[in-house]
Specification:
The structure is a single chain. The protein has about 180 residues and is of the alpha+beta class. The protein has a single domain, classed as START domain (Alpha-D-Glucose-1,6-Bisphosphate, Chain A, domain 4). Helix content is about 30%, strand content about 35%. Helix 2 (about 25-30) crosses helix 4 (about 120-150). The longest helix is centred in the last third of the chain and has 32 residues, at about 120-150. The protein is elongated and about 55 Å long.
């Protein structure tokens, strides 16, 4: 099948656990994945609900292909689009002195008409990937800042707030195991 791949990477001023938490937290995905309204699913698969009613905004179904907490996540999205058959995302996290480096490999599998329009499809995919990485960086860094500023027990008599917990609940995770 005809396909193309894009890569992107970013350095985030957030620890790997915070970055991972943003990556797999169902409630936070809509904050950085453009046009996504909600995410639902089971242990091995998930589905999205898009925020718009445009023809290319139909729900995406996905599956978890690989999972190594705080290091690696691979997922594949499938949708009945006219140009694209699927999008496979391979996300790798690398701890750095100042935070975390995120590397993304996105592989787009094209349908028949998509091959003819490959340059336009590729350009749109590059823009979408850039926007997602930029928004993800902002969400992860905002969460890291929020956690640093959250009051801690024993400091000037403040008790920890519910929002100060860096742990993502098990039920809120995008996924728990890979098939």
């Amino acid at each position: 099948m005809p396909s193309f791949s894009l890569t992107n990477e970013a350095s985030l001023l957030a620890s790997p656990d915070v970055v991972w938490g943003q990556l797999v937290d169902r409630d936070s995905v809509a904050d950085w994945f453009e046009g996504l309204e909600s995410l639902s699913g089971s242990t091995e698969s998930f589905s999205t609900r898009r925020a718009t009613d445009r023809p290319c905004s139909c729900p995406l179904e996905g599956s978890v292909d690989a999972l190594e907490p705080e290091r690696h996540l691979a997922v594949t999205f499938r949708a009945p689009w006219r140009l694209l058959r699927s999008i496979a995302l391979d996300v790798t996290l690398h701890p750095e002195d100042a935070g975390t480096r995120v590397q993304i490999l996105a592989t787009y599998e094209l349908r028949g008409v998509g091959v003819l329009l490959r340059p336009l499809v590729r350009l749109r995919a590059e823009v979408a990937l850039y926007r997602a990485v930029r928004a993800f960086r902002a969400a992860a860094e905002d969460e890291s800042t929020r956690l640093r500023r959250a009051p801690r027990t024993g400091q000037q008599g403040f008790a920890p707030s519910r929002a100060a917990s860096p742990a993502v609940s098990h039920d809120a995770l995008l996924l728990r195991t890979a098939s």
